[in-house]
Amino acid sequence: MSVARLEARNVRFRYEPDRPLLEEWSAAFHAGEVVAVTGPSGRGKSTLLYLLGLMLRPHAGEIFLDGEAFHIRSDRDRAAARAKAYGFVFQDAALDQSRTVLDNILETTLYRGDDRKALAGRARALMERFGVALRQDAKPGQVSGGQAQRIALCRALLGDPNVLLADEPTGNLDPASSDIVVQALHEQASRGAAVVVVTHDPALVARCDRRLEL
Known about the structure:
By secondary structure, the chain is an alpha/beta fold.
């Protein structure tokens, strides 16, 4: 198999000195696959996504993106890599309540230096696809939890990321909406992305290419 899109080697991380969360943890994530990360609450699944997503640094071990070591890169380089290569779907959607839904989706263009106007059409198409084609001035506080999660997915997919990380992406969704989201995850994988999802949803796990238990 080719060089992994994303790889963790012997990663260690702990929030408290006497309570290790991850110890000598290793895994590789390849282009074209959707991998489910499962395990009991409090085991470090969300923290793992932050480590893989270059938002946290491991206390020991290595993180590689497309064969390059990013655990030793500067914060600026890591931020640039996140903006260029990653899409994130956080468990709580992480939407800015003061801005419109469309502005939230287009937010990532600021970090990548993309043309906001040029991507507005793609943003609206994603909103239509995921059933959140809301009025122009709609804000996150006016939508349901399931809609907020789908809006977050639109934002994550806007830049066509090589790595898509999603924390409970179907957690607030009905079966029909969940099916649309799972299809989108696989479609992004088919475009060459490595897709990693943290989930407690057995139906989502069953549709992933591989499962990792923490």
